Amino acid sequence: MSRAATQxxxxxxxxxxxxxxxxxxxxxxxxxxxxxxxxxxxxxxxQRTWKLxxxxxxxxxxxxxxxxxxxxxxxxxxxxxxxxVDALEVASTVVSKKSTERVLRMRxxxxxxKSFAEACAQVGAFDEVSIxxxxxxxxxxxxxxxxxxxxxxxxRVREVAGKAVTMMIYPAVVLSIACFAVLVLLxxxxxxxGGAMQDAGVELPTFTKIVMGLGLFLRNNALILAGVVAVLLxxxxxxxxxxVAALMAVVRRLPGVKRVVMHQELARFFSVMAAMTRxxxxxxDALGVSSKAIxxxxxxxxxxxxxxxxxxxxxxxxxxxxxxxxxxATRRLLxxxxxxxxxxxxxxxxxxxxxxxxxxxxxxxxxxxxxxxIVVLFVVIGVVIVSVMLPMFSVTxxxx
Length: 400
Known about the structure:
By secondary structure, the chain is mainly alpha-helical. It has 3 domains: about 5-50; about 65-155, Up-down Bundle (Receptor-associated Protein), CATH 1.20.81; about 170-400, Receptor-associated Protein (Up-down Bundle), CATH 1.20.81. It has 17 helices and 3 strands. It has helices at about 5, 30-40, 65-80, 85-90, 95-110, 115-125, 130-140, 145-200, 205-220, 220-240, 240-250, 255-280, 285-290, 295-310, 315-320, 330-340, 345-400; strands spanning about 10-15, 20-30, 45-50. The chain has a 3-stranded antiparallel β-sheet. Helix 7 (about 130-140) packs antiparallel against helix 8 (about 145-200), helix 8 packs antiparallel against helix 12 (about 255-280) and helix 13 packs antiparallel against helix 14. Residues about 1-5 and about 55-60 have low confidence and may be disordered.
């Protein structure tokens, strides 16, 4: 087989379905033959393919749901003595369709003599944390335990991230509805009522004229404004990394929210530390990888200093006490765990504690956000309503 044929790439394909009709999609595969074989297992017949240039259509890292499902399946099968190649064959059936081919490619690499960690690195579906844990698990002969720990970590990260997303979705939905309502009032209701009053000879107050003028401007230039919004959205997508970084910098300074973000980052940090130390990875190496989950500049700097001093020969229990950006209770627990030789259990317990704290603080924050959003809605929509009511009050006073 030629070199080109053995390289993995992304293909745009057309296939016929068993019940009639055609399916179109994008998948990664070693070759057209491998793609045809994968589709055949799904009872589809490959008709045409187009190789996508470069990395177009690349799968990227497995999402958390696929990581959790695959690791849970591997842990169950490997702990019962099922060979790794067969376990990967089964694992390919529990992940999403877009990840199935990549798991099967990992199976082929393992069957050809590659280690599981090497196969993961070559496929490019896992971050360096997972690969390091898999490598340590193979070295210690406990790949099943490493998979179980990574599956638990993926589930925990999903839960924490889901709570954070929920906290952000609620105000976003409410504010979006408010913006739509205000837009309708500005462009339809206010000009209609204001125009009717002007035709009746009523002198409109200055405030009403300003709001009415804004509504007419938005309505008359709707296409131009829509184009500007579309361009801004495209630019926002292109610069999303910088925008997210800027938003996170602002969020970390907001009262209440910054504590939620800190506990969320600490939950992921300690979860990764538990997975890596339990797999036999040296503490300094685990810190170097896990600290990437921390976005707070001060804490990230302190953890980097802790790692450097560990490499120089420092004692963890003495160094961690100087990381003042960590809560005092957390430092006391880590010191006691290091003295008792149970750091991996302490990391796991701290991950759970911080995840629970995210639950508690998210609930409190939502309880504060709900009345605050009501006030915001009242102010925003109330301004538009007042602009309509003012001339009515003027007419009423003139009649009386």
